[in-house]
Amino acid sequence: MPVAVSVRERRLTWLSDRVDLAREFPAAALSLPYHFAMAASPVCSGGAIWGGFVLGWPTGGESGLTRCQLDVIDDTCATMGDLLRRASERGRPIIPKPSPRILDPIQAHQPWPYAGLTALACLNCLPEGYCHLDTHERVTLVTAPAAELLAAKASEMVGQRLGAALPWLDDPIYEDHYRTAIVSHRATQFAARRPDGRRLLFQCYPSLPGITLRITPTTTSEAPVEDDDRRPRVIGLHGMLHLAVSLARAMTAQDVVDLVADHVMPVCDAQAMAILTWDSGRMRVVASRGYSRQGLEGFNGRPVVHPVRWARGYDEGRAAFYASWEEFRQTYPDAIRIDNMGAWALLPLVAQGRSIGTCVIAYDRPHQFSDSEQAMLTALGGLIIQAFERAWLYDNKHQFAECLQASLLPHALPRIPGLDVAARYVAATPGMDIGGDFYDLIRLSDSTAAAVIGDVQGHDMTAAALMGQVRTAIRAHATAGADPGEVLAHTNRLLTELATDRFTSCLYVSFDPRRRAVGLASAGHPPPVLGLLGAPAEVIDTSPGLLLGIDPDAEYVTTDLNMPPGAVLVLYTDGLIEQPGRDLGESIAELAARFTPAPGQALNDLAESLIGPITNEQRTDDTALLLLRNTPTPR
């Protein structure tokens, strides 16, 4: 909001019209889509900021504030600041009241006591009805003809909001006309239908304070509900407010395009929309709606077309509107007509202070952009910039995270005689940061191997970096010949020395397929499940020790296990079993109950059967899964 920027940066903020407001503060422009200028200034005293001061003017071509106006604002803010500071120092700070105080700028002095009654009597003699609303849209006066046209009693209307007194006028579109007249000091009009079907024309004239309504009967052909200049903005206003909230949740460029297209294209009667970015002088379509494949191929890879910077109406960094191909060519003489459209709105995209592309809204025929459309689309451009910058930064961050995740997980598992292996990694939901789940298979000798699975606390780069250190430490100690308990103990001491404030669960398993011998050690990790042929699966008790990184002197017990031929050992992280409100022991028992490997069944199919039943909506954490089967080895 303008006043927030003014207070934060300790400077006066001036916005000459609603286009300026839409360009700099799109969210504010959507909630205040009226013709007015605004100045916001901080209220300071004693080196502290005590508040903000906002003034508004109906626009009339003001390009800036005069020296006299600036002096008045400065003096007023200084006086208010001193008042607030002194009150605070006395221990009696000035607290704002629940509702603002409305001041009447006109101090009327009646020449004689009956002037008001005479004016009302004069209005009652006119055939049309008149009604006055104050700045809160409360009824202050109703003439007799107006009460008759509205089918209401004047005594029951006075003191109420018009929409409360007449529910059939309680509509945001009608309220927008009142506010436009009040804020912008511009006459507006609209037609509305009484409950009995009779249509009335309401003409709203700004007065001080509030507005005067002139009410006359009309027919459908005589009174359009809204004039052409206002229709796109009024219809789009409330949808645009919803769009502003929705865009805050957009995660990708296509999300941005889809949201804007759904809310705006039908209102503007536009036929296509695209977000173009450029790199190394070449254009690329990152998201689109309404363009054919051929049209998109025409854009992708083409050189960026540069504008003639002295062309009429061109202003770098601001929204531009071209009603026809001829207008477009005046600014972009080297452009080639690729999309066969007839008019364009170009909304610039800026990320981290640099231009990275543009949002194109296209019309299939020439189109004259009204002032209201330009203001709305300019405000829309500001929202798109904010949403696209978030999506652009997220995409870059996510790509980096995915590359980091892929580099930390093994690209391929080694082939171990007598051991069949399958692995899976599934992120909790699209859009989550990098996880800390990991797995590995380590060749210890020609006939022995070790498997490890773990989960580092957190979902960020720190978790990923720690995951890499844990994997490296485990590999180093495993290849040095340590048994499972010793591997975890050595790794634990390293993590406590690093003092990362992150804990890690881990399960380490050594295999000797020829001897069918397995050794296991756990650092607070969920127990493995052993699937047997022709018998129920078993949950293996591993006597888990403390999580890694808590106590440097923690000890980890090695549990020995015999693994029959064809048996499958399942190592997993808690994302496979954890569900909100569900007991972890019950979830592990359920996993064992549904794990029934068949003779000769492919491990990849088994892995999919375990991962598959958990939907994305049910996943609360990333999932790593490692399956190992003891197979006969040639003698």
UniProtKB/TrEMBL annotation:
This is PP2C family protein-serine/threonine phosphatase. GO terms for molecular function: protein serine/threonine phosphatase activity. It comes from Nonomuraea guangzhouensis. InterPro entries: Bact_Sigma-Reg, GAF, GAF-like_dom_sf, PAS-like_dom_sf, PPM-type-like_dom_sf, PPM-type_phosphatase-like_dom. Keywords: Hydrolase. The lineage of its organism: Bacteria, Bacillati, Actinomycetota, Actinomycetes, Streptosporangiales. It is an enzyme of class 3 (hydrolase). Residues 416-630 form the PPM-type phosphatase domain. It holds the Pfam family SpoIIE. Its EC number is 3.1.3.16.
